Amino acid sequence: MRSNQPVIASSQLKGVRYEIRGSLARRAHELERQGYEIISLNIGNPGLFGLRTPETMRLAMIENLGAAEPYCNQKGIFPAREAVVMKQQARGIVGTTAEHVFMGNGVSELIDLTLRALLNPGEEVLIPSPDYPLWTAATVLNGGKAVYYPCTEAAGFNPDVDAIEAAITPKTRAIVIINPNNPTGAVYSREVLERIAELAQAHDLVVFSDEIYDQMLYDDAEFVPMATVCGDVLCASFGGLSKIYRACGYRVGWVSFSGALERSQDYLNALDLLAALRLCSNVPGQWAVQTALGGRQSIHELCAPGGRLFESRQAILNGVEASEFLHVVAPMGSMYAFIGVDTSKIPDFDDEAFAMELLEQQHVLVAPGSSFNTPYRDHFRITNLPDPDQMAEVFRRIEAVLQLQTKRVSKLESA
Question: 0.85 cut: is pTM over it?
Fold first, then answer.
């Protein structure tokens, strides 16, 4: 007898969300299939906007294709791992060797593996709010509990270190730092990072420092690698080719460990086991790492005055300034802006409803702020990857939707 029972998804997915590529993105694909041109600002995908991977990286990968056909060591090819070590040493991070570096299919895979190797059921991870939602999802999927610490707009989206300390319990195992930050563009000061490191030391926490945007800085912002202030705290520093080197499709990321290496050997062995279970990460892309890290860093020109990312960021600031509804903390790093809406003018503003209306009416796709695990619903995130002219057009369309929402409010009030 045939069963008509539906196939039910795993209960482990309860509470897991990734709206950056969720229902809004699916609707955008439907509209594209109908022939509409969508300006997709929901994810940081440089190649979609003509920002190419440096040619030297492509050549390095092509020239080593013959060596990329077999599986490699589960931690990755030695030249790539050694290049990461040299980068860390140049920043003053000592004690790390190639054995303490793991290559992954992007940072995303490594976030999952590092949390899986650490967490027991019910253990807690301190995560910023707003966060990059993969950190929450990976924590939950690996049996942990995400505990958020606030990074408020009033504080320039910097971590509230006192709130972090108050959130620590006997079940807390790790703290996540995203610097430069996604989604807000905040770049943390040395003082803030040192205070967080002191808490990690006092409570024996592992520090996970997501630094995928480490060289994407604007104006006078200074990036301080977390590992340089962690001392004898186990610090996992994440980086990759996707953003700085505009090679999202290569799917190459890395995590390097420093600090309390000797007393963390059991954990590192567990991570090595998990890496082995997936055999290895994408080998061809790994051959671009040494060239990327050792070559000319073209990202600096893109982020300097006159550069594509700098000027697009300025177009965002200009668009916000010209709006009667919007406000933003100027992003000092990464490729995003976390834009707020004045709810005194649109009292019933809802970020998800706004994002859908903007998509349906103006064919612009943005990410609602609440999808980054915020307790408020009056922000949205956009990427600064389009050129300045296109960005100016985006803000004309955003303003049109906000004007319509204001008119609806006025009609309700006068009814």
Answer: yes
